[in-house]
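Minutes, project huddle
Topic: does the predicted pose make sense with F0G bound?
PN asked that the exact inputs be recorded in the minutes so nobody has to dig through chat later. Recorded below.
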Amino acid sequence: MLSWRGVIDAYRSFLPVSAATPVVTLLEGNTPLLYSKYLSQGLGEPFQVYLKYEGMNPTGSFKDRGMTVAISKALEAESRAVLCASTGNTSASASAYAAKAGLRSLVLIPKGAVAMGKLSQALIHGARVAAVDANFDVCLELVKALAQRFPVTVVNSINPFRIEGQKTCSFEICDVLGRAPDFQLMPVGNAGNITAQWKGYREYLRYGRISALPVMLGFQAKGAAPLVLGRVVAKPKTVATAIRIGNPASWQGAVGARDESRGRIEAVRDSQILEAYRLLAQHEGVFVEPASAASVAGLLMLAKRRYFKQALRKARGRGKKREPILVVCILTGHGLKDPERAIQSVRPIRPAPADLGAITKAVGLA
Ligand code: F0G
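Predicted holo structure (tokens), as shared on screen:
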């Protein structure tokens, strides 16, 4: 087998690159698509649930797919510095790719609202990080204002090259499954990813790689659900800091993906997110960050409402009796990004003296 050389190499003909583009890659993409027996059994026959584990990208999130394209294009355009606002993952990815490309990276984060793992990544890769006394939405406005005054390349998903790279996630899913899934579930924050992935599916359809499109199901946290409410949320709140966003930049893209695919964007409570977070870790052996668990929280919520059963009736009506119904949940980021949350979410560690009796008790053997 030929070795994997990153998403630009794998999907070059679908991306805005030429022979003149200096490719900056950390060999992102080609992430696992894991079959979940537990979740499949929960939905029952003929559903098959798969988990696209984007936490396995080089910096631990899906952002790397977009960043390889954005940073390669920034280098091609002879930019010297890249700038982003971030709830953490974008800054981790931008800083790593900028380091590899020899570019400076400048980061604005909402003070006190970024998980430690992500912050450590931006810092160790050499970013100049400003912790702003404001939320993500304000940070993004400040980034736009800075970019008007200084010669820096913005690498948030308002940069179209980010969207181009991120659509490769859909390509990989289709390539592995041999078709598009029937349903795709994903967390939604700034809404670049749902916009990108819907674009990916539509392109694969246009080029005849697939013959049908998935229904797109997006999930926001209840305290940060502008797309569900249909209005900006001034003070977004959720434990899922990655998606603590009140005014998504790709608002129209998300609404377009939802409506064109006859999908939904729904809100899940923090308690549902944390339940799905533990479930993935304890039943699947997959450690994700809380925001990523929103897709599985959404799956469980819609299953309870019998949403998928209704879909099954419709599919049967169309005469697809024996075919499996494929469901893909995108797990956007790695659990190690936010170890503090993991430790707070489970039973506390038991201190114990070095004594056989005490230890037997401490580990629950007696
Ligand atoms: N999941 C994770 C782990 C994220 O980091 C993000 C976004 C999302 C989901 C939502 O994706 O914004 O495309 O709708 N993180 C951004 C950041 C905002 O700055 O890292 P989206």
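Observations noted during the meeting:
- The beta strands are 33-36, 47-53, 81-85, 104-110, 128-132, 153-154, 183-187, 215-221, 264-268, 325-331.
- The pocket of F0G is lined by residues 61, 86-90, 157, 187-193, 242-243, 289, 291-292, 332-333 (CB under 6 Å).
No decisions taken; revisit at the next huddle.
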